[in-house]
Specification:
single chain; 317 residues; inorganic pyrophosphatase (n-terminal core); Diaminopimelate Epimerase, Chain A, domain 1; 2 domains; 6-stranded mixed sheet; 5-stranded parallel sheet; 11 strands; 19% strand; binds guanosine-5'-monophosphate; binds manganese (II) ion
């Protein structure tokens, strides 16, 4: 599918979702590098919002475009790790105007909004899917690094249930390209700045258990982020610490985007489908990891969320 669509393109744009995470950046940069290495005849560009600092070592990140050129129309737009058109953010007009569109994704909430869609909800990551669509002998070490990073981040370093046999086989294939996996995992997944660790500590200390200890919530407001000098994308991972609380079935972490507007991350064990809850409020994601944006005070949001979580906890089989 990818090969076929690339064969007809002279220009190609690659775009991912707003607030790009490891899988989004990994899949986009991996594909970009693959095109640079093997499709010199295609003029390729990547469109992403600003990426987290630890990912900047990946090849090609200096070329990322953060705004769209006037009147540029691409033959092909490849949309990665993105479940709906709105989540493309600023690059959506390029998707709209492109001659052809392809979407590669693993979100259960994906609406198959492109001309061609390769959507596998059971896949560990978009990076794994992108790797499957590539020709093995054409994957360079730089491409391997990016795709490996994407897989590592969306599987929580190969621990989540979405990491199946095909994930490990894909990872093995990428390791054979000579990447330094332990270093990549440590530097991009585990290492946090001092300020990030402090704000994590604060979020854990102020967390609240509810629904008989089956739910946990914590939130960080803008003034707190300012106090610690931490930006929203540096709060990634806090929700996973909340989830690891004994007895907890659903973890909720919220941070303020603007006054009374919160970005919310939901995590669950197998009992509750959090993508369903996120979708109810206009978000999306996966069964055990989903996200959304909601307006209102912390208490009004948690009341609305709590009602949805409780009914699903009651109805679990
Ligand atoms: P996170 O909580 O780490 O931001 O996101 C968890 C998962 O849910 C990711 O796969 C992410 O792409 C998806 N997700 C997060 N926020 C949103 C949202 O606002 N809308 C949709 N459709 N998906 C989201
Ligand atoms: Mn992903």
């Amino acid at each position: 599918m990818l090969k076929e669509m690339l064969a007809q393109a002279k220009t190609a744009a690659i775009g991912g979702h707003v607030r790009p995470d490891g899988d989004c950046v990994g899949s986009c940069m991996g594909l970009y590098q693959y095109l640079k290495d093997n499709y010199a005849q295609i003029e390729a560009d990547v469109y992403l919002e600003e990426i987290p600092k630890p990912f900047e070592f990946l090849a090609g990140t200096g070329d990322i475009r953060h705004g769209i050129p006037k009147e540029k129309v691409y033959d092909l737009f490849i949309c990665l790790d993105c479940g709906d058109k709105e989540r493309l953010g600023f690059s959506a007009p390029l998707f709209e105007s492109a001659g052809h569109t392809l979407c590669i994704d693993h979100h259960i909430s994906n609406e198959s909004f492109a001309e061609r869609n390769y959507v596998v909800p059971d896949a560990s990551s978009t990076s794994e899917l992108v790797c499957q669509l590539m020709q093995d002998d054409k994957i360079s070490k730089k491409t391997a690094e990016a795709l490996y990073l994407g897989i590592v981040h969306d599987t929580g370093v190969f621990q989540y249930s979405c990491a199946g046999p095909s994930t490990f086989m894909t990872a093995a294939k990428l390791l054979e390209k000579g990447i330094d996996a332990p270093r990549l995992i440590r530097d991009t997944y585990y290492v946090k700045t001092y300020a990030q660790n402090q704000i994590l500590g604060r979020a854990l200390m102020e967390s609240i258990l509810f629904l008989n200890g089956e739910c946990i919530v914590s939130y960080i407001r803008k003034p707190t982020m300012k106090f610690y000098g931490v930006t929203p994308k540096e709060l990634d991972g806090i929700v996973n610490h909340l989830r690891n609380t004994k007895g907890v079935k659903v973890a909720v972490f919220m941070y303020e985007l603007e006054p009374e507007v919160y970005k919310i991350s939901l995590r669950s064990d197998d009992d509750v489908d959090v993508s369903d809850i996120a979708k109810h409020f206009g978000g999306g994601g996966h069964r055990k990891a989903a996200g959304l944006t909601m307006e209102g005070s912390f208490y009004s949001i948690i009341n609305r969320l709590s009602a949805q979580i409780e009914s699903r906890l009651r109805n679990r089989s």
